[in-house]
Amino acid sequence: MNELLRQLLFLPEQRSSLAREIDGLHYFVILVTMGGAALITLIGGYFLIRYRRRPQDTPRPHPGAFARPALFLETVSLFALGFLFLTFWTIGTRQFADLRTAPDDALDVYVTGKQWMWKFGYPGGDSEISVLYVPAHRPVRLIMTSRDVIHSFYVPAFRIKQDVIPGRYTTAWFEANEPGAYPILCAEFCGTSHSEMRGQVIALDPVDYERWLAGGLASAPAFAQKAAAEAENELAEAEPTMPSRGELAAAKHGCLRCHTLDGTPHVGPSWAGLYRAVVPLESGGERVADEAYITESIMDPLAALHRGFPPVMPSYLGQIAPPDVAAIIELMKSIRDVPHGPDVPWDGGVPGSSVTPEGVTP
Amino acid sequence: MMAHEVEGTAPVHGAHEVDYLRAGAGVRSWLLTTDHKRIGLMFYVLVVLMLLLGGAFALVLRTELLTPGPTVISAAIYNRMFTLHGVVMVWLFMIPSIPNIFGNFVLPIMIGAKDLAFPRLNLASLYVYAIGAVVTLAATIAGGADTGWTFYPPYSTTTPAGVLPVVIGIFILGVSSIMTAVNFIATTHTMRARGISWGRVPLFVWAIYSTSIIMLLATPVLGLTILLVGLDHVYHFGVFDPTLGGDPVLFQHLFWFYSHPAVYIMVLPALGVISEVVCTFAQRQPASYWAIALSSFGIALIGFAGWGHHMFVAGMSELDAGIFGAFSMFIAIFSAIKVFTWVATLHRGAIQFNTPMLYFFWFLFLFVFGGMTGVAVATQSLDVHWHDTYFVVAHFHFIMVGGTLTAFLAAAHYWFPKMFGRAYSEPMGLLTSFGVFLGFILTFLPQFLAGNAGMPRRYYSYPAQYQWLNVLSTGGAYLLAGALVLALLNLLIALRWGPRASANPWRSRSYEWMTPPIPPEHNFPVTPVIDRGPYDYHLTEEEAHARVSTAR
Amino acid sequence: MPESQPPAEQLAPARLAMQFEDLEKQTHAAHFGMWIFLASEVLLFAGLFALYASYRAVFGHEFSAGVAHNNAVIGTSNTAILLTSSLLVALSVYAVRLDRPTMAGRLLLGAIALGLAFLVLKGVEYTQHFHEGIFPGSAYRFEELPQAGAKMFFTLYFLTTGLHAIHVTAGLVVLGWLTWGCFRRRYGAGNDTHIELGGLYWHLVDVIWIFLWPMLYLMH
């Protein structure tokens, strides 16, 4: 019965712990709604035919008396309707409270929405773009905020949706009841590529999840790899410009954990205003931060270290694809005019102090 | 004032008076007229133009959605296009449609007045509307807002598209609405002819009166709110911009405080039209006059308390969501009172079945179904899945198009003989009405399913599994558009070649049918005294006529 | 100076518009229309009041500091000025009813002068703010109160007082038109509707200021 109605109503599969219960109310409400509309229309249609004007009626005025039974029936129907609505409301309120209250043992994931991608940060420090890996059969709580405009995090298969609002945190939770890949959509209009702002929730068996935590994408099951590749394609469609692709690449390779894009001082030099700036070197002398210097610094960061910054950046030689490097350089070019903050490390400590942020190794 | 009554059975209308269409010739006599009927007609022309324009945008949108990827326009154009569609349909068509055309035309006659209380204000309202329309359209076409008609910040305050000019246009349209609302409320209160007590006011007047109250109270809040968005966009005032300390959710509260009642601005006049149509063609009094009259009022008041249901997923607390959900369902009860009363009115009637009545039949199904899905989306946990999907799009189109547009068409046919003194082709009217219904169902029923399947609204491209539903919907949109154009043609042809209609072709008892086939310039030579109700179908036509006399 | 008794025939009687049965109905309609228009105006400001209330709930301290920084002397003088001008307008209605339009015109002139004084003081206050770097929105650069909440307070301050000033200006235009009519002896006993309606509008402008005054100058 559940399956039949679900398919008749085109609902997606029920893949969260609450989905089935919510769909139950859905069926109830829709059947009553459809039934009510059909019933009223049938009664109205019947009256239209039954009481149509006959030629002999035409000159005679209508007696105009109230039909008392009709009025009585109307009052009864109104109360019945009110009672029905109250039922909807009672069940809906309870389910809504369930949807809003995450269990205490939930795994927290931090979600950042931005035009036009989702970024997921794990308590361990790892972050993923557009693919959210979660263990199945375990509640996951999403703590969400936006960097620019309002987005809305929507997973149809889980029956959850939550607006993601800049300047404040909102939460949502779900418990995937089966491993699989489920699409994420953005439901609040957020600009040109709003409809391309998609992603995938990849729910893994707890065992697979542990394996993924340890070994990354390569050790995830095949369906997950396929879904991740698909998500990456979608992301490329949503990000047609080189600088935005560069930002993605920078995020993917973890560059943005140490480098900022708005001129704020951090572990590494901010990229704002960096392109073609004259950079003082730790070893004395200076270099112009052109394509050659940037590429060199990515592949062999310690060869010509920017003065005032700790020598903590690992080499990305062989880790980062040439198109990504090009995109990152385009990104730097695009923020050339952003005002550059003072070149001091983020903790304000002396240059060369042992700042080793977590997760620097790619 | 000397006012001694002369009892008499003389017709209220003097046969010697020239009808309002011929009362003055030349462009000047139209452009500077203060006659509510002529102003109504000019609104008619403008508003129908807007309907066609908004419909054309809709067709482009539907064509684009034929395929999952890009089809005919780019994403940037698509976003501007759906904004235009929403803005044009909501502010330029839906809100002014029934009140400003039919309300203007029949409301004064329905209460036995010679004109509205402030005829010059009425004319000013027309011009303000025209200016607002020009500004809005010019701004949208030149730079164009790509925010959707809801203008949610911070997107609307940061988008590169020009928002302020569009917002100014809408603000001007709001001024026009307020002018009309003040006029209607004051007229209904102070200008009813002797004998028309509150219990004898036609139901359409009740509906327009309730609508005007909403317009008067809600429009200023909206005007101010979106103006602030425009100012935020240009001058970075930051009232709603989180980077400057503002709160974007606060905007949603203020916006929906207006825009939710605005839904009733759009639908209440339609309910009024339907009440008139039902009583006239069933040839009997409404099963309960006060139920219909006061439920309009109830909808108007409770309508102000339901705005929060647009924000269930914006981080609203469970308690607030519960309260707003309950209020929203409460409104549906008031609508249900009306629906039940109409159906009860049909019972034991002597029903004449023609085009307006066929539209009523469609209306009955579409409005009830649309309204019931409204209760469904007011159910908090279900709204989480449906919010901002095509389900909601289908729901409000069922109300706005299935409800208001069908009622608009019913009104266009029902009052056609009164407005132009001619009869339209009945078979053609019935045929186009069928076309409208079929096109409508085909357009919007698949959208419910697409929404269920999880397709969000305002999507330029969509996952491929939704395609066939979208193709159905696009086909329906073309059918709907074709039927609408045919319906319009049918009326246009009747305008010139239709047979002459009698003064009261539907044998209605409502007061506007007391005037000659085409009413004279000031409706009545003298303000009449009316000693019967507008739905006194237990009287014969002669008796009903005899109870209207001329004062002085 | 005693007013010369006007010759009665020069006073234009109230004209009955075509659509009304009698003058009583016409006057009633005019008053009724004005009152509901004022309701609409109140809601226009209600939106801003709602914003003020919400943000004050969020940024209580900053709002208090902002209120304390505003010049209460100017605010209070402006209140007194507006109240006095309202009194003059009320007296002018009274004078018209006594059939002394010239007297009413002079009273209205006084009200207009006070209204202008209000605007001048407002301008002085704005200039002070601009000198301190207090501008609305992102242009704000007042260093004593750098917080976002203070910025929001002053943005709302400019929005509410600006909207109010627009209403004052509109009111002055209306009063000017009425004054002109008074001196042209267009109004008199039995034909005081316009003066009364103009007065109503002016009182509304006044009442709104009565709310703005504590909100922006006193509640710290």
Describe this structure in words.
The complex is a heterotrimer of chains A (about 350), B (about 550) and C (about 220). Chain A is α+β, with helices and mostly antiparallel strands and about 350 residues long. Chain A has helices at about 1-10, 20-50, 70-100, 205-215, 220-240, 240-250, 290-300, 320-335; strands at about 105-115, 115-120, 125-130, 130-135, 140-145, 150-155, 160-165, 170-175, 180-185, 200-205, 280, 285-290. In chain A, helix 2 (about 20-50) packs antiparallel against helix 3 and helix 6 crosses helix 8 (about 320-335). Chain A is elongated. The relative contact order of chain A is 0.09. Chain B is built from 17 helices and 2 strands. Chain B is globular, with a radius of gyration of 23 Å. Helix content of chain B is about 65%, strand content about 0%. Chain C is mainly α and about 220 residues long. Chains in contact: A-B, B-C. At the A-B interface, helix 2, helix 3, strand 7 and strand 9 of A face helix 3, helix 8, helix 10, helix 11 and helix 12 of B.
Brief rundown of the structure:
Chain A contains 8 helices and 12 strands. Chain A is an alpha+beta fold and 362 residues long.
What descriptive keywords fit this protein?
heterotrimer; A: 362 residues; alpha+beta; five-stranded mixed β-sheet; 8 helices; 12 strands; elongated; disordered C terminus; B: 552 residues; mainly alpha; two-stranded antiparallel ribbon; 66% helix; globular; disordered N terminus
What is the structural class of chain C?
Answer: mainly alpha
Structural class determined from secondary elements of chain B: mainly alpha
Distance between the amino and carboxyl termini of chain C? 46 Å
Helix content of chain C: over 70%
Oligomer: heterotrimer
Low-pLDDT stretches of chain B: 1-15
Low-confidence stretches of chain C: 1-10
Using the CA coordinates, give the radius of gyration of chain B: 23 Å
N-to-C series of helices and strands of chain B: HHHHHHHHHHHHHHHHEHE
Counted by DSSP, the helix tally of chain C is 6
Give the strand line-up of the largest sheet of chain B: 1-2
User: Quick one: which chains have the greatest interface?
Assistant: A-B, 87 and 90 residues
Distance between the termini of chain B: 10 Å
Total count of helical runs of at least 4 residues of chain B: 17
Overall shape of chain B: it is globular
Tell me about the largest β-sheet of chain C: none
Instruction: Kindly state the percentage of residues in helix of chain B.
Output: 55-70%
